[in-house]
Amino acid sequence: MTNGIFHIDFRANNGDYGDGLVVVKDGAVNGGDPHFLYQGRVPTKSGSFESQFTVGKWRDGNRNVVGVDNYTLDAKGHVDYENGILELQGSVVGAPHLTIQLKGRKIQDAV
Fold this sequence. Notes:
Distance between the termini: 11 Å
Number of helices: 0
Strand content: over 45%
CATH topology: Lipocalin
Helix content: under 10%
CATH superfamily: T3SS negative regulator GrlR
CATH class: Mainly Beta
CATH architecture: Beta Barrel
Radius of gyration: 13 Å
Strand order of the largest sheet: 1-2-3-4-5-6-7-8
Order of helices and strands: EEEEEEEE
């Protein structure tokens, strides 16, 4: 099944890290953590992809792992729905020296 709830771990190239949840449904990705929301698209079939994700602060109290509150991430990744794996690497649009690596695993089907 291509829809699911994924726990994600992410790490910035500055050593900062965090985690959150994303829901993948029909290629749409929506998720977040206690302070930031993430949105974007992935393919509906397993394989490699290139996409952009928006990251936006919704609540004060924590700094984003790349040190920017609201940005777009240019990403390349791979999704494997059969094994419940989502991985990507990306850089902040306008600041390519700020990078993130993300690994996610499916924890539940999405309805």
